[in-house]
Amino acid sequence: MPNEKKRVIISVNEIDKNNAGPKAKTDIDKILKKEGFQVINLRFNWHSKLLKFKYINWNIPRLMKNLQADEIFFQFPTYSRALMNAFIRDIRAYTKAKLILIIHDLESLRSYKDDPTYKPEEINWLKQVDGLIVHNNTMAKWIKDNGITTPMVILGLFDYLNPQSVNNNYQYTKTLCFAGNLKKAQFLSKVPAKISLDVYGPNFSGVTDNDVKYKGVYSPEELPAHLTENFGLIWDGSSAEECNGMYGEYLQYNCPHKASLYLSTGIPIIVWNKAAIASIISKNKLGYTISSLYELPGLLSSITQSDFSLVKKNALSFSNDLRNGNHIKKAIANIEAIIW
């Protein structure tokens, strides 16, 4: 039976002629459009004070006054505090819709970790809405521990609309790949020798004293076609002994999008054992967890062809859920069941 509620998804991205917006957000837009949602995709210029004034005092109020909706799902955050305040204010003032945040990032735990003014504001946003879709149980616990009682459900890994064929190769050859912004991946120079690691992404510094090989930069849609390795690595920071720094510590709370890239391609994962997704990987037998990169040689040598075939089969099975948008569809059904 079709959902009779009028459902809207709002995504706000910075104007950038070279970028349609982050893939995690644009994929959710595409998945929910097929589910009958009205998609409102706003392109704003954060850096112009004049334009920001116009958005807050004209564009956003006008949009909300004319919007007919029973449910508004908002892809959070907007990366502008003033705009976020304006959206919540005007959705509440001009609509009777239930407001649900699909959380992509909690910047109190990442970019604004050292800004004492940001956390209370972010907590206040989360308190003002009707529902939250959060990454995992660790993120949910942090939210609850900060006094937020808003109903919430778990997304799990982000879906990944992957137009390429899956990596169907079951032959185990001890190979690893790592994809991402390589400027943040200072640990690459510390990967143990004789570990075959192919890296993809912008800002490669040129590591030469180990077996890290640079394979180029591709769009999120093209990249899966180039990933032929056995495992995808999830690590962050400057250390081989732990994930450190702002992004490394954030792995304890988020479900990184690269996990969705790897698994939607049918590639099992090796991840830091203190990462929030480590329990997902272990529970579903989608790969292995390590406490240090120095464990890689022993781990890769200990994995048998039979061991690899098991996690490979599971990754290929899991890829179907991510490619079909099953995670966001299930999370929306779950939050709707709670808030109505």
UniProtKB/TrEMBL annotation:
Recorded GO molecular functions are: transferase activity
Where do the Glucosyltransferase 3-like C-terminal domain residues begin and end?
A: 176-334
Q: Which UniProt keywords apply?
A: Transferase
Please give the Gene3D superfamilies that the UniProt record associates with this protein.
Answer: Glycogen Phosphorylase B
Write down the superkingdom of origin: Bacteria
Transmembrane domains' residue ranges: none
Q: Does Ligase show up as a keyword for this record?
A: no
Question: Per its UniProt record, what SUPFAM superfamilies does this chain match?
Answer: UDP-Glycosyltransferase/glycogen phosphorylase (SSF53756)
**Domain Glucosyltransferase 3-like N-terminal, which positions?**
7-156
Q: What is this protein called?
A: Sugar transferase
